[in-house]
Amino acid sequence: MNKRAFTLAEILGVIVIIGLLAVIITPLVVNRLKENSDVVSTTSNDLIFASADEYIKDNIENYPP
Fold this sequence. Notes:
With 65 residues, this protein is mainly α. It contains 1 helix and no strands. 0% of the residues are buried.
């Protein structure tokens, strides 16, 4: 017998395994992206405040009181 193709059971098994992996991994990735977004926001705010402080220090004579 010349077997050149996958059986329906093999294809369904692979699809089920891929689906289970997707169900397990998707929440982990979404949570990680949310955590990183919070870190990026905090870091951006720190950078903006530091830049404003440097500008004020460099241009103290031109900065209004």
